[in-house]
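Cross-posting from the modeling subforum.

Setting up a comparison between two proteins and wanted a second pair of eyes on the formatting. Protein 1 (sequence, then structure tokens):
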Amino acid sequence: MDATHTMYSAISMSTMGLSLILNSAIVLTNIPFLGKLPSSSFLIVFLCFGDCLTTSNVVALTMTHLIKNTLEYDAQTCQIQAVFITFGAILSLGLCGGLTLFRYLVIVQGIDITKKFAVGYVLWASVLSGAFCSLPFILGSQQASYAMHPSGINCTGVWHSRDPRAMIITILCPIILVVLLCGIMFAYFRIYQTISTNYEAFKGVEVMSNHGLHDTNLTSVKDRSGSNINRPSVLERAAMPSTTDTENGSRSLKRGGLAKISRGLEEAKQLRLLTQTIVVVTVFVVGWTPYFVYIMMEVISGEYAPTVFEFAADIFVAIADFTNPIVVLVFDREIRGNLLRGLCFWRIPKE
């Protein structure tokens, strides 16, 4: 093995190894608390699990190269590892889409996400990803579909293959990626529209209240916003009774104030979850975009892309896999708390 491929394997093993450590720590310390985690955190744990599958197989591959000092590798073993690597990547992609879907349903549609729904989503994403990655073995095209790439740091799809059976994978993967990314972009556009519209309606009700117009009703709020506002905070403020000196009026104001505080805390939580989701998805998209470009280069040209470009694309993925758990630990209190309890072996009060 020459110096270039040795460098490729060493860098890949280091970055993927760090990613594997971080993602494994999150998964292992949060498994006992899966039943107590919120739906989004539940999805994130399995997102980290998908990254563990990808990184562990790459680490095993590159470590073997460095130990044996050769790029020779058993073809059948490489094909099996390719299934796990591809499964982990597609599962992670599907779960990133799921995080966006959850925020879309909560903010735009006003639908609460139950744990049952989250579990069902993970199960269906896992089954569909597993079936898709196993397709070459079902069709008997695994040799044409999966192989080690020239850089020697990855066993995955042979994207330049012109075998009709192998092209099922090479064509469907980019299509799935494009469709999912378009869906994510649309979801965030609608989320932005909803938040902007609701803010304008809320501001309008606030201005009217300051001028003593307390008879604002829900219909007027809906008409000004142009959308169906189902956020209780806005509805409560619009429907709040005017201040009076009577006891009933005071009690109404007190109840309204408590309701606003409660709803404000809930909205702060949803905003934190939205921020976390945007950052996680952004890291994923930025990390996988060079690899998508690399795939399209091979699919269109019908031959291997330059090895240095393939290596760069793989490193971008490795950096994304490394960055993602750091983002999770910064934004997700539940996962961070479980990790600290698991690592430090003492009970840390919940934040």
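Protein 2 (same layout):
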Amino acid sequence: SRRRHQKARTGCGICKRRHIKCDEAKPECQNCLTFKVRCDLAIKNPANEHTLSLMTVKAYNLLLEHLQWPGHTDAVISYMEIKEKHPSPIFNFSGACIADLVRSLVASHLAHIQPQHQNHFRIMAESFSSAGLRALASLLASVDANSSHTVFVAAVLVCITTLAQGPRAGEYLLFSDVAVAELFPLLQGLKSVLTTFSISAIFSGPLRLFSCHTARASRTTADILHLPRLEWIDPFNQLKDFVAQSSGIEMESNVEAVLSLGQCYEAIWGGADLAYQGDAVNGLAFMWTYRLKDDFVYRLQRKDPITLVIFAHFAVLLTSLEYVWFIKGWPEHILSGIAENIDHTYLAWLQWPLGVVG
């Protein structure tokens, strides 16, 4: 028969919700210590609280309560309750894949902000990510204009959750030591959705509030985000000359990738006058990866040295996004992978990216 517990009317919030007796020991009660979960009675660390807004703390505490119990994934907070308590455009989707991918992202963030429970939350993140991918695969079998916006958001979330799970040994976003790099098929899926369905169809329904028109920027990303100045023009011109002087049928594709990369550099850090007037999407670092031709990525996966050199300069672009928690560590990780795999005669071309990234 089921073990009976004395109902808790005092004590920590975890014990109350599970209707068990709490010994109210501080800084953490015995039940929470036993189950290795965060106790409401734990003394908060004021030094860490300033990094998150009060709303973020409340939202993540709400989700934390339902993510932390091992073996009880059915206890995760209901999707409707999340929507009611924390309204957001992302919660206007009914697809199960969106719910699971959001939960995966939350679990990864909890692993980031609570290192003492890092392994547990990483397992949770991978579990929800796998569930989200299975649901997305099922949705793709019958995708149409009405569901295109859901598939688009799911594809974006898959890319983000992949980054959020953090750098992994042998995996460097667009090339890998063992198999096809994770991000490449995800980007292909994103492109497929955008080319199969019209922009107006995708940016309808829950996405109708988002602008789908090309915007013009009048300020650099560095100016907007108060990023430090970067002297990039001379090193980048050297890269362009190096690639242009290379031989082989792939030279044209490499030059195209470098020019596209230069557009992003200028939008983020400005030209010689530190200003930028142009397409706003160039200020998005990952726009470069989206624009890459498949043949360039295939050469990158074969660890062609010139494509690795170009990719090393993309790692510098990522430093403009390091204020986002799930980008931290990726620039260094990518460069370390390139340095380990590139022919030693090309190592000199990594000096500038390594000097910037550190």
